[in-house]
Amino acid sequence: MPKTKRDQRDQSVRELLRLPVGERIDLSAYDAGGTPGGPDGKKAGAAATAALGPRLAELQERLYAASTAGDRRRLLLVLQGMDTSGKGGTVKHVIGHFNPSGCRIRAFKAPTEEERAHPFLWRITRALPVAGEIGIFDRSHYEDVLIARVRELAGREVIEDRYGEIDRFEKSLADDGVTVVKVFLHISYEEQRTRLLERLDNPDKHWKFNPGDIEERALWPAYQEAYGIALERCATDRTPWYLVPADHKWYRNWAISSLLLEHLEELDPSYPEADFDVAGCRARLVAS
């Protein structure tokens, strides 16, 4: 029996959106227009997302403050999804809750000549957040098993090896204090068409459109298969994938904000205690 909204709200967002580990992922079985566990509609969703902001900002500050006392923990949000699924929108609307000085945002495009001269994880490693930071990847190392697979930019044996390299890489991150939050933004074929047409119909959005988007759209089935394989092969209990239905932008924003909040609350960073004489410094300052 399908779960009701009340049943869903008894679960954490992590439980609702986490994909099963070690199982075949058929993306057609997931509703891109769903709103599991979410508020009732766009207006309520926007209000609920805004209400999460102060708590997210507080936890980010605590994470950053803890790093000044030697806490090496940090968080990395990995955003993957088809064109128009909302990776950039997530950065704009969700990461806006945070202090930019404590964030490290990187959008990965086609590799440069220098990047192609190195192993595929080289450019990823250089962009990782340091202690106390929240990192956000708009696309990531997964492009090397997605577009590389669909467009046959690398041999199948090379790509097969990359799945294992990614697993080992993410394990090393988790071992080193990085909380890795991997989100697949699941948009429907129909909604992507609508969003691409909106870009074409609005001159102010033409800069966001690339004729190549139509060619990529023609490869939709191949991309869905490539994503299904990556979501299955590169998921562990420590570094699972979360599938966020992305047809409704308001739900996407609420779900990712909630995912980040649950992970940060689990980290529960603390403000460090002063390593100096607070009372003495206060007395000196008052007397100055």
Order of helices and strands: HHHEHEHHEHHEHHHEHH
Output the radius of gyration.
21 Å
Count of strand segments: 5
Q: What is the global morphology? A: globular
Distance between the amino and carboxyl termini:
71 Å
Low-confidence stretches: none
The number of helical runs is 13
Mean pLDDT: 95
The strand line-up of the biggest sheet is 2-3-1-4-5
Strand content: 5-15%
Report on the biggest sheet: 5 strands, parallel
Percent of residues in helical segments? 40-55%
Return the structural class.
alpha/beta
Written overview of the protein:
The termini are far apart. Helix 3 (42-67) packs parallel to helix 12 (249-267). A five-stranded parallel sheet has the order 2-3-1-4-5, with helices on both faces. Helices cover 48% and strands 11% of the residues. With 288 residues, the protein is α/β, with parallel strands linked by helices. The protein is built from 13 helices and five strands. It is globular and about 75 Å long.
Descriptive key words:
288 residues; alpha/beta; 48% helix
Provide a compact summary of the structure.
48% of the residues lie in helices and 11% in strands. 32% of the residues are buried. It is built from 13 helices and 5 strands.
Chain-wise SSE layout:
Elements: H1 5-9, H2 13-17, H3 42-67, E1 74-81, H4 87-93, E2 103-107, H5 113-116, H6 122-125, E3 134-138, H7 147-150, H8 156-175, E4 178-186, H9 189-201, H10 212-218, H11 220-233, E5 241-245, H12 249-267, H13 278-287
Parallel strand pairs: 1-3, 1-4, 2-3, 4-5
